[in-house]
């Protein structure tokens, strides 16, 4: 077996006790021998401003390097007003700029949306996918991941729902296969 694929996990919620962060942490803590998931923090990124591209802030430079070093990316997002939180959109913008230096380019991706409500962040999930098309991130299509009623899945920050755990295991397996499917093949000479 080859080296583990490095997966950057981007959490669209800054709240320490957020359900989205709990889901992301659960995914990262699952045993998956082919992948190494690591949450990349986005709360310290200054707002994207093109005027700063000539001399980018240190957090931008660091974040861009982290994304470039990743083999794939998982976006875990709550839903704010039928879209993604501003902090997540800012992180996407920071790593996609300056124009022509898109750190997301070609990285296999997955979207998992989380909500305490019944719709599981459906609007945020699909809105995020629209941005990822432009950024050339091939996104896992199946299984779709809309995590609803998230408050019922956790107790003191730990996943307690076996059905959800089984879904997360299968989701990561499917994502691992997706990453392999998206890897460019080397032409033999």
Largest sheet: 5 strands, parallel
Q: How many beta-strand segments?
A: 7
* Shape, per Cα inertia axes: globular
What is the overall pLDDT average?
A: 93
CATH class: Alpha Beta
CATH fold field value: Rossmann fold
What's the helical proportion of residues? 25-40%
Description:
The model has no long low-confidence stretch (mean pLDDT 93). The relative contact order is 0.18. Strands 2-1-3-4-5 form a five-stranded parallel sheet, sandwiched between helices. The protein has 189 residues and is an alpha/beta fold. The chain contains five helices and seven strands; from the N terminus they run βαβαβαβαβββα. Helix 2 packs across helix 3 (86-96). It has a single domain, classed as Flavodoxin domain (Rossmann fold, 3-Layer(aba) Sandwich). Strand 3 (72-77), helix 3 (86-96) and strand 4 (109-114) form a beta-alpha-beta unit.
Q: Topology of this protein?
A:
Elements: E1 5-11, H1 19-29, E2 35-40, H2 58-69, E3 72-77, H3 86-96, E4 109-114, H4 122-134, E5 146-147, E6 154-155, E7 158-159, H5 162-182
Parallel strand pairs: 1-2, 1-3, 3-4, 4-5
Antiparallel strand pairs: 6-7
Helix pairs in contact: 2-3
Please supply descriptive tags for the structure shown above.
189 residues, alpha/beta, Rossmann fold, 5-stranded parallel β-sheet, two-stranded antiparallel sheet, 5 helices, 7 strands, 36% helix, globular
């Amino acid at each position: 077996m080859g080296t583990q694929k490095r997966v950057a996990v981007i959490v669209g919620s800054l709240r320490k006790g957020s359900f989205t962060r709990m889901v992301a942490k659960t995914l990262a803590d699952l045993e998956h021998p082919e992948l190494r998931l690591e949450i990349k923090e986005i709360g310290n990124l200054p707002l994207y401003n093109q005027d700063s591209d000539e001399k980018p802030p240190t957090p931008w430079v660091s974040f861009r390097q982290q994304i470039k070093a990743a083999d794939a990316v998982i976006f875990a997002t709550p839903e704010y007003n039928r879209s993604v939180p501003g902090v997540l959109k800012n992180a996407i913008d920071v790593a996609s700029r300056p124009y022509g230096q898109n750190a997301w380019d070609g990285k296999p991706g997955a979207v998992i949306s989380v909500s305490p409500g019944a719709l599981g962040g459906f609007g945020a999930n699909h809105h995020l996918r629209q941005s990822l098309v432009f950024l050339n991130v091939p996104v896992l299509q199946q299984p779709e991941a809309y995590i609803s009623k998230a408050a019922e899945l956790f107790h003191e920050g730990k996943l307690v729902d076996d059905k959800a755990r089984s879904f997360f295991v299968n989701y990561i397996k499917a994502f691992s296969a997706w990453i392999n499917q998206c890897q460019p093949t080397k032409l033999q000479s």
